[in-house]
Amino acid sequence: MRGPLFYAKILLFGEYGIIKDSKGLAIPYNSYQGALKLSKEPNELAKSSNQKLKNYLSYLKTLQYEGLLLRLDELEKDIEDGMYFDSSIPQGYGVGSSGALVAAIYDKYADQKITVLENLTRDKLLKLKGIFSLMESHFHGKSSGLDPLNSYLSLPILINSKDNIEPTGIPSQKEGKGAVFLLDSEIIGETEPMVNIFMNKMKNEGFRKMIDEDFAKITDVCIHDFLNGDAKSLFKNVKKLSKVVLKHFKPMIPDSFHHIWQEGIKTNDYYLKLCGSGGGGYILGFTKDYEKTKEILKAHKLELVYRF
């Protein structure tokens, strides 16, 4: 048995903002993927994954949600037979490792499932998002459901608000010098503690005002620029976003990257932003000259996501 592949995702824009109902843009990232597999001779990784699936099954048995009909007996039998999730998606890196697993389980074991082939109305998307939110909460304490949704549909998704999401097209990649890239912090991040820091900060009126008046507005403009292929305006606004994040989200940026972050803003060679909740994992970068940035950041691992 080898299930279909489910890809990683990158939240290009909207980290934390989507918690407070502002815009977000998520895209599939096909460099990493996972699939459900059965193995007669499992290695240690497969055994570890199988045990995690057993724990996850216990959680799924507690779920009661309208529209979520999972064939748990079949899932249990497959887990007993040694099924595991064979994944290259790094965990704790903000690229949707648990989302891909949730998408794979739903795809294989859900009855009356909503499929990618049907007309995806807003109601259907919201229903899927609600199902995935519950299914993924086992891994993060609380989930928006967007990671599994992105992985399941394998389409870019525009989040206008909690109740307004839609598949979207993104401009074709060009063979230009500019790029979106991932910078590997080589630190494993944990979502829950970072979200807790954010929620505590939200108790502060000044921070809430900054989110509404600065962070959310700049994020919305960045999404508009990206979807419209306006690279010149995008870089101007990503610089603003990078400054706001460095000033107000410092706990989410690993200490060793504060200087690198500041240097990018100072020199205009590249701009960094959070990829997911932060605290480690990947940092997202934007540059007008990828080759030059690779040279500047040669002490670090970079991965190309998108070309301008």
From TrEMBL:
<dbReference type="Pfam" id="PF00288">
    <property type="entry name" value="GHMP_kinases_N"/>
</dbReference>
<keyword id="KW-0067">ATP-binding</keyword>
<keyword id="KW-0547">Nucleotide-binding</keyword>
<keyword id="KW-0418">Kinase</keyword>
<feature type="domain" description="GHMP kinase N-terminal">
    <location>
        <begin position="83"/>
        <end position="147"/>
    </location>
</feature>
<dbReference type="InterPro" id="IPR020568">
    <property type="entry name" value="Ribosomal_Su5_D2-typ_SF"/>
</dbReference>
<dbReference type="InterPro" id="IPR006204">
    <property type="entry name" value="GHMP_kinase_N_dom"/>
</dbReference>
<dbReference type="GO" id="GO:0016301">
    <property type="term" value="F:kinase activity"/>
</dbReference>
<dbReference type="InterPro" id="IPR014721">
    <property type="entry name" value="Ribsml_uS5_D2-typ_fold_subgr"/>
</dbReference>
<protein>
    <submittedName>
        <fullName>Mevalonate kinase</fullName>
    </submittedName>
</protein>
<keyword id="KW-0808">Transferase</keyword>
<dbReference type="InterPro" id="IPR036554">
    <property type="entry name" value="GHMP_kinase_C_sf"/>
</dbReference>
